[in-house]
Design brief:
The complex is a heterodimer of chains A (about 260) and B (about 450). In chain A, helix 2 packs antiparallel against helix 3 and helix 3 runs parallel beside helix 6. Helices cover about 85% and strands about 0% of the residues of chain A. The longest helix of chain A is centred in the first third of the chain and has 30 residues. By secondary structure, chain A is mostly helical. Chain B has about 450 residues and is mainly beta. Chain B has six helices and 40 strands. In chain B, a hairpin with a 2-residue loop joins strand 1 and strand 2.
Chain lengths: ~260, ~450
């Protein structure tokens, strides 16, 4: 059985379930509501930023972990067949990330396209959303494969989500205050690269929220993240964030004694 | 071929000296000149021909020194390098077909030492950059009632320099300079100890300050555009009772610096894209009793920075997408902000004190999240425009990288519920639910 076949079955299975539709509907409803209250597209995008940065990591990491815990029997059944473990892992992974990404993209894009916005204007929002989805599903798979106990696994998933979205920034602020006598701009740039949520936030800020680029400090950050080198470094960091959890999860899956 | 001067243009003394120039009259003059020229092909075709009354000249400086009070010097095209050109009589110097006066970066270009002088229709270029002398393209020195109109001033050190030149009018000129450093470039329109000026419809690019006024009173600065100047678009000090209407300040080192003056009116101006480390749309430094209304501030690092200023009325302005809409220091009491729109600014108001010495009332704030149950158009919950994060950034600018982070938003919400660090009394009690100045 090939990878594509597994993916096909996976997708059929997932699209039959209700949560993907609920997920798409959620993004559609939020975007639509923002249009109804707020008005123009730029403002909706900046408001969607926080939704994307908060909700996508949470849903991806929880659903990813739950999904793997729940398909335990299905995995064991398939592993009895002549299927390569790596194809199965890739199939499972795509089976979660593709529907989540599609649901998010459609949910956000439809209200914009209905109002005649160009697809280019929300491209960065969509790309950041998809990258975060993939990154956090990869983390979830890594967790679910490392912890047998699903309560423990889900608990750690939640803590991880809280860490990346909230606690990490608190730590950065603490560092900034503790070492305020030193030039901190470069260390802070590096620190924010070590968190995919921060990285996504900064990339979105620089692309959509011009008022963030203010002052000397803003100019330093802008010079880095706005330049071609800075952009490619941050995209590379984002891709590393994608590759490392995926690779760790895959390794755990290959070695796991089911 | 000569032209009877009285027929073509009223002598300069007849030109309106009041601040509203009769544009109709100017227009008729121009049309008249054009019509006459069309029937005088000999003159129109002559390149570089200079005439004063019946006489014609080959050298501009000779013509100018020949002309006596009330004469008009006509210059038809050509390039003239006999500078500096000294104007010692009450004459009109009028260029047709865009004649060029070029100082070739040697000293100054035109110096006016007589009252009632009109300079119109020239391209004036090449006043020398200097650390010692204030070389200008056109300099009025202790003379009054001059008019500088429809000239192109290109690549000069100072553009138009007015020293004790009361009642001068500077109208519809285009000034461009190419300086890169403050020290080696100078101001576009520079006025010093001069009252009753009219500066209208000029475009100033690439100078140090676009318009610089020092000890200038009772003057009007209307509909000028200052773009890409190295320091300020408009800079004035010790200049009371002036009016600034309908000007545009775009992408200057800092928009405008408004200092040490009283009773100033600034209305319907546009402040755009003044970005930079210590940049702002408008700096109010030690100002008193002035009115700032109906202006638009869009995409400035700080839209208005207020330092040591009091009794300013800030009304009906629109602040959009600025880093800070208003940065007000505690040394600025009794300022009043009302009916302004604050839309999508990273920070609406920042201050360095826990007490509020100025009042905010009936403004629209796009960050306001309250409700209006009684439907009177005012939110039922007061709005606190100072965020905790703006205090953090004030103390530690590196923290700016956390802007819009969820952690910071949580901190802000907590602070709004129970203000501990932000000024308790800096409140808009009646935040508007809808924008007022669309």
């Amino acid at each position: 059985m090939s990878t594509t076949k597994i993916i096909k079955y996976q997708l059929q299975d997932v699209f039959r379930s209700k949560w993907v539709w609920a997920y798409a509907l959620f993004f559609f409803a939020v975007t639509e509501a923002l249009f109804q209250f707020g008005g123009d597209g730029d403002r909706v995008i900046t408001s969607m930023m926080n939704v994307v940065l908060l909700v996508i990591p949470l849903i991806s990491i929880v659903l990813g972990a739950m999904y793997l815990y729940n398909s335990r029997e299905y995995i064991e059944l398939l592993l009895c067949q002549p299927v390569k473990r790596s194809s199965l892992f890739f199939g499972l992974f795509s089976g979660v990330t593709v529907p989540l990404s599609v649901a998010f993209t459609v949910g956000v894009a439809v209200p914009f396209l209905m109002r005649g916005s160009e697809i280019g204007s929300i491209l960065f929002l969509v790309i950041t959303g998809i990258l975060l989805t993939v990154i956090f599903v990869a983390m979830a798979f890594g967790l679910a494969l490392s912890f047998e106990d699903r309560i423990k696994g889900l608990g750690i998933a939640l803590i991880l989500w809280l860490f990346f979205t909230v606690i990490y920034d608190g730590i950065i602020l603490l560092i900034i205050y503790s070492f305020s006598d030193y030039p901190l701009q470069q260390p802070v740039i590096i620190l924010s690269m070590l968190n995919p949520v921060d990285l996504g936030r900064i990339l979105l800020l620089l692309n959509y929220d011009i008022s963030a680029l203010m002052g000397f400090t803003g100019a330093v950050f802008q010079r880095f993240f706005g330049s071609l080198a800075g952009q490619s470094i941050s995209i590379t960091a984002m891709l590393l964030w994608l590759a490392i959890p995926f690779w760790l999860g895959r390794r755990a899956f290959l070695r796991r004694n089911f | 071929m000569g032209i009877p001067p009285n027929y073509l243009i009223p002598s300069i003394t007849e030109l309106p000296k009041t601040q509203g120039v009769n544009t109709m009259k100017v227009l008729i003059n121009i049309i008249l000149m054009g019509a006459v020229l069309a029937f005088l092909p000999g003159l129109a075709a002559a390149d570089g021909e200079i005439t004063v009354g019946e006489r014609s000249f080959t050298s501009l400086s000779e013509a100018v020194s020949y002309a006596s009070d009330g004469d008009t010097v006509w210059v038809d095209g050509g390039e003239h390098t006999d500078t500096p050109l000294l104007i010692e009589h009450e004459i009109a110097l009028i260029g047709l077909n865009n004649p060029v006066i070029d100082a070739q970066h040697q000293g100054e270009v035109i110096r006016v030492n007589a009252n009632n002088v009109l300079i119109e229709g020239f391209t004036i270029t090449g006043s020398e950059s200097s650390h010692i002398r204030d070389n200008a393209a056109i300099r009025f020195d202790r003379v009054t009632d001059g008019i500088v109109r429809n000239n192109i001033l290109d690549d000069n050190f100072f553009g138009i320099y007015l020293a004790r030149a009361h009642r001068t009018q500077v109208l519809d000129n285009k000034l461009t300079a190419y300086g890169t450093r403050e020290a080696t470039s100078a101001n576009g329109i520079h006025a010093w100890y001069t009252n009753d000026l009219l500066i209208r419809g000029n475009t100033i690019k690439g100078h140090r300050d676009g318009i610089y006024l020092e000890y200038v009173e009772d003057s009007e600065i209307l509909r000028n555009e200052a773009e890409g100047n190295i320091r300020y678009g408009l800079h004035f000090m010790f200049s009371n009772d002036c009016v600034y209407n309908g000007n545009t300040f775009r992408n200057n080192g800092a928009g405008t610096a408004v200092m040490y003056s009283e009773n100033v009116d600034m209305h319907y101006n546009l402040f755009l894209d003044n970005w930079g480390s210590s940049s702002y749309g408008m700096l109010l430094k030690d100002m008193r009793d002035s009115r700032i209304t109906h202006n638009q501030f869009i995409r400035n690092t700080a839209a208005i920075r207020i330092d040591g200023s009091s009794r300013m009325e800030v009304e009906n302005n629109r602040f959009r997408e600025n880093g800070w809409a208003i940065r007000i220091l505690a040394n600025s009491p009794d300022n009043h902000f009302t009916k302004n729109d604050f839309i999508n600014n990273a920070f609406d108001v920042a201050t360095n004190s826990r007490r509020a010495y100025s009042t905010f009332d009936k403004n629209y704030w796009s960050h306001y999240s309250g409700y209006d149950l009684d439907g009177d158009g005012y939110g039922d919950v007061p709005y606190r425009p100072v965020r905790l994060f703006s205090l953090i950034v004030e103390q530690n600018s590196t923290a700016l990288i956390l802007l819009r982070s969820i952690f910071i938003d949580l901190l802000d919400i907590a602070e709004r519920v129970v203000p501990v660090l932000t000024p308790e009394t800096l409140i808009d009690e009646n935040p508007l639910m809808k924008e007022v100045n669309r």
